[in-house]
Amino acid sequence: MLKLRRATVIDASPPPGAASGEQRLIVELSPQGEPGAEQPPARAAVADISLVGLSQPGDEVIVNVEALDLGLGSGGFDVVHANLSRGLDGPGAASRNVMKLNYTSLQHTVEPVETVGSQQLELPLGRPVAVLCLHGQLGPVAWAYAQAKPGARLGYVQTEGGALPGAHSRVVAALRRAGLLAGHITAGASHGGELEAVSTAGALHHGLAALGWDAAVVGPGPGIVGSSSRLGHGGLAALDSAHVALALGCPALLVARMSSADGRERHRGISHHTLTVLDLLLEPVTVALPAGMRSPVGADLRAGLGSVFGGSGGSRPALALDVERPVRITRHDWRRAEVDLPAYAASGLPAETMGRTLAQDPLFFGAALAGGAALAELAPAADGPEAGPPSGSSRSGPDAGPALDESALPAGPGGPGGAA
User: Fold this and answer.
1) What's the CA gap between 386 and 376, in Å, rounded?
2) SS3 83
3) 54, 23 in Cβ contact below 8 A?
4) Around Cβ 276, how many Cβ atoms within 10 Å?
5) Partners of 45 in the β-ladder
6) What is the pLDDT of residues 16-41, one digit of tens each?
7) Number of domains in the chain
8) What is the pLDDT of residues 242-266, one digit of tens each?
9) Most Cβ neighbours (<10 Å): which of 142, 225, 328, 420?
10) Same domain, 124 and 234
11) Of 209 and 33, the one with more pLDDT
12) From CA 245, how far away is CA 390, in angstroms rounded?
């Protein structure tokens, strides 16, 4: 059962001046129990304006309090479920037949991009797509792409796996203000973006074919769903997104989730989230690592990967993370990319992941910056009819990274696993 409570709004952020977006509130819960019960302390709350309307001080609202009560990492606030004072006379839509969050109390109509304009498929799309494992990668990816390809149009497709409301992302708002994103489409159950799509495929096709995006980033909203299992985490949405990109004829790049400071061993170096996706993908994709960083995957890509996969090569100590099927990992197109952490830090864009700053976890941001730089590298290949995903674990040409010797990456007894 939903953990809903009555509350009164005691402070409301200024309305954003639109019929959508997110409003931040301070609320007081109504006392529970016998008359004269102690007044609960004030609490932070958020309201999705497109669903529940604007709130004002004094409004009586219904809030979902469960995440805040449980102390979840991404749940430091209550969520307004309904505004009883001014939210019961919404007009709804006059004619649409597509619902999001359908068959829930928050179902609402949308006009999906799949029904706008020409219904003809333009395949292969041939433009590159970067797939995120975490929303915090979006800022560095977009910034690095813009540094490498000034003036290029990069769009963002938000999927499931994290927060569903598109308005909840401060990163998207900052990137749009900075001109680093050309648009924001929410796909599937995700909702509230500038445009709506029924599917990730429909969103990517519309952005790349109809809106003229030069490249796209696809990934979950803020926060991530996690459990203590190999497959039970929101990062696995990247598997579906990468397959969609490949099916549409887009060169696909997986932005590696990496960390030098995560307290959970399974996320240090290359996260088990990324390794699981790379293992399960049906076709190879491109993966970029930051060159020249002191990390388990530093400047020496071959030795670094050997270290990550439990091998003895290189001077760095091996991580306590092995993979059961190393050939499934090494078949991908591994590249190195130069990154500029000081410049990104000076950009003023969001630079925090799960409470850790760029200075505390440089590898996380370095890996995301490498993904953005590599995405720009893929763009020239997307101009011709031969564009497509890499066909093997190596590439040719003057910019080619070192081919990996699979025999140097022995299989370990374990595999990626554990909680998110």
Assistant:
1) 17
2) strand
3) yes
4) 22
5) 25, 78
6) 666 678 999 999 999 876 666 677 78
7) 2
8) 999 999 999 999 999 988 777 676 6
9) 142
10) yes
11) 209
12) 13
